[in-house]
């Protein structure tokens, strides 16, 4: 049966000396040839703007410019927390109380300086009265004023230092307030926990109205991806919704673990649909203005790990031509070498013609 099939295909190919469906010189004497010729279709090779569609995997991440990881500036013990993971908070909102011996020392210094300030104020009033009665020199009056100013400057410095740590509540306790508005995306603060400047962040606040999508670009796709390209992003959570963005930057160093370059896409997320750690698909459309030789993808024949087409020359003769591909988009294939604009290729029944010509 195999030999009979091969014989029929070889005979069919012999009848295909003409690939045009309009030429029927020999078809009148052969019903098989005539029927076959009616099913042969050819198209002209054209030049077209190269288009390519690429799908990349990716993940939603925080915008590093819109997240704060809080680490205490001094050692202490957490007295109380006022928030839970995922809470929406406003800037200045109390988050936790910390008791610290270091802060107790500052509070004591502040109280001592405030006492000295009151004494210096009384001394200045007395000096001013004596100066008015000409019982005190101007130099002595200036010294009294200078002493008070030094004490007041020291008090302001301590107050400023304590503000960095939080709001002073007395007895060695200060309240940490939210440094920005956003959402609590990490919490390691529990009442009774010990904290220090060397400990991990006790909480993290992120503004999720702006997020980043990090797309994975493999070495084989690098030639098709560049900064400024428009992208379409889809997720499993919203299968019917497309999020649009633009590649803001492309890393120049491969990730040592994933072996990919990272393409960063910064996006508005005002509706908060895109969540950090969410997996996404990133579609890139490259619509280059560079003209490339283009044919329908149906014309391609893949054989022996190479691509071929059947070309019809000016004498209506069919020939096999090997081609090198440049890329695909939908049903169009772009040719790097092997074809020229204006040539004619077979796009229907080309496989039978190819097999017949290959056996010759």
Itemize the secondary structure elements and their pairings:
Elements (H helix, E strand, L loop, with lengths): L1 H13 L16 H8 L2 E4 L1 E17 L4 E4 L5 E6 L6 E2 L4 E6 L1 H32 L5 H28 L1 E4 L2 E5 L4 E6 L6 E2 L7 E4 L3 E8 L12 E5 L8 E4 L2 E2 L10 E8 L10 E18 L4 E3 L2 E7 L5 E12 L2 E6 L6 E5 L1 H10 L1
Antiparallel strand pairs: 1-22, 2-12, 2-17, 3-11, 4-6, 4-10, 5-9, 6-8, 7-8, 9-11, 12-16, 13-14, 13-17, 15-16, 17-21, 18-19, 19-20, 19-22, 20-21
Helix pairs in contact: 1-5, 3-4
Specify the number of helices: 5
Q: How does the helix and strand content classify structurally?
A: alpha+beta
CATH fold naming of the largest domain: OB fold (Dihydrolipoamide Acetyltransferase, E2P)
Q: How many separate domains?
A: 3
Distance between the termini: 21 Å
The fraction of residues in strands falls at 35-45%
Residue stretches low in confidence (pLDDT < 50, at least 5 long) are 1-18, 20-32
Name of the CATH superfamily of the largest domain: RNA polymerase II/Efflux pump adaptor protein, barrel-sandwich hybrid domain
Helix content: 25-40%
Count of β-strands: 22
What spatial form do the alpha-carbon principal axes imply? rod-shaped
CATH architecture assignment name of the largest domain? Beta Barrel
Assigned CATH class of the largest domain: Mainly Beta
Largest sheet properties? 13 strands, antiparallel
């Amino acid at each position: 049966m195999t030999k009979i099939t091969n014989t029929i295909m070889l005979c069919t190919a012999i009848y295909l000396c003409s690939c045009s469906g309009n030429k029927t010189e020999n078809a009148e004497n052969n019903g098989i040839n005539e029927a076959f010729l009616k099913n042969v279709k050819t198209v002209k090779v054209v030049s077209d703007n190269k288009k390519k569609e690429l799908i990349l995997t990716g993940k939603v991440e925080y915008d590093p410019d819109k997240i704060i990881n809080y680490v205490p500036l001094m050692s202490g013990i957490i007295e109380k927390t006022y928030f839970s993971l995922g809470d929406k908070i406003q800037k200045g909102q109390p988050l936790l109380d910390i008791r610290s011996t270091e802060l107790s020392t500052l509070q004591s210094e502040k109280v001592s300086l405030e006492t000295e300030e009151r004494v210096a104020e009384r001394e200045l009033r007395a000096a001013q009265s004596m100066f008015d009665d000409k019982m005190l020199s101007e130099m002595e009056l200036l010294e009294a004023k200078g002493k008070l100013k030094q004490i007041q400057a020291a008090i302001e410095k301590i107050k400023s230092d304590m503000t960095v740590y939080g709001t002073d509540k007395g007895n060695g306790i200060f309240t940490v307030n939210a440094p920005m508005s956003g959402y609590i995306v990490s919490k390691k603060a529990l009442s009774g926990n010990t904290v220090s400047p060397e400990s991990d962040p006790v909480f993290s606040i992120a503004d999720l109205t702006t997020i980043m999508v990090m797309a994975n670009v493999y070495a084989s796709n690098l030639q098709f991806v560049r900064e400024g390209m428009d992208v379409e992003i889809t997720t499993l959570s919203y299968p019917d919704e497309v999020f649009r963005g633009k590649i803001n930057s492309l890393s120049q160093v491969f990730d040592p673990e994933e072996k990919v370059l990272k393409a960063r896409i910064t996006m508005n997320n005002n509706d908060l649909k895109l969540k950090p750690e969410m997996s996404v698909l990133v579609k890139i459309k490259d619509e280059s203005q560079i003209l490339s030789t283009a044919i329908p993808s149906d014309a391609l024949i893949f054989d022996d790990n190479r691509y071929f087409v059947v070309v019809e020359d000016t004498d209506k003769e069919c020939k096999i031509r090997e081609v090198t591909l440049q890329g695909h988009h939908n049903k169009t294939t772009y040719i790097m070498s092997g074809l020229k604009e204006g040539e004619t290729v077979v796009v229907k029944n080309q496989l039978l013609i190819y097999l017949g010509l290959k056996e010759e």
